[in-house]
Amino acid sequence: MFLVILVQLLMHNVLVQSTETREAFISDTVILPCSIDPTAAGGDVIWRDEEEKTVADIIMGKGDFSDQHPEYRGRVQTFPNEIAKGNFSIVLSNVNTTDSGIYTCYAPKPVQRVELRVTYKRSSFQQHTVMYSFDSKRQWC
Ligand SMILES: *[C@@H]1O[C@H](CO)[C@@H](O)[C@H](O)[C@H]1NC(C)=O
Ligand SMILES: *[C@@H]1O[C@H](CO)[C@@H](O)[C@H](O)[C@H]1NC(C)=O
Q1: Fold of the domain spanning 26-113
Q2: Which residues form the signal peptide (predicted)?
Q3: Coil, helix or strand for 46?
Q4: Whose CA is nearest to atom 8 of ligand 2?
Q5: How many whole angstroms from 48 Cα to the centroid of ligand 2?
Q6: How do the domains of the chain map onto residue ranges?
Q7: Ligand 1 nearest-atom number relative to CA 82
Q8: Which ligand is nearest to the CA of 88?
Q9: What is the per-residue pLDDT across 68-117, written as a single tens digit (0 to 9) for each?
Q10: Beta strand segments in the chain, E
Q11: Whose atoms come closest to the Cα of 35: which ligand?
């Protein structure tokens, strides 16, 4: 029964939007990818974390950080030269384990989900802890 629900959840996610996974170590810099057909994109994109906190907005082709959550302040950049090509990827620097989770790029519908997993460098125990808590969170989404 549980398996059926899980499979349905996974299928649902696949149909609604694509998900990418990024793995990183503490203090790394990661790219969270989001590409939209530039002819289809309305132009504005918002990035939210799984708690709906604002990571970054891309308004009229530029990064707008006025609504950004303090947790992400000074750690996010956009690629201004790429935006016209439909590349709304962002860079998150100095990541920590608390950054682990799902990031979604909305335009305005959810276009891309990115699952970020941040782990300690030399500790497989910590790695398993982070992944386990992430997976258990996901079952209740
Ligand atoms: C988007 O831009 C970044 C930075 O230049 C690059 O690393 C990435 O590959 C680009 N993505 C696509 C799909 O072109
Ligand atoms: C990561 O978070 C932990 C716990 O909040 C903190 O002690 C540590 O200093 C942080 N590491 C970095 C590199 O910011």
Answers
A1: Immunoglobulin-like (2.60.40)
A2: 1-18
A3: strand
A4: 96
A5: 22
A6: 26-113
A7: 2
A8: 1
A9: 999 999 999 999 999 988 999 999 999 999 999 999 999 888 999 999 99
A10: 18-25, 30-32, 45-49, 54-59, 62-64, 76-78, 90-92, 101-106, 110-119
A11: 1
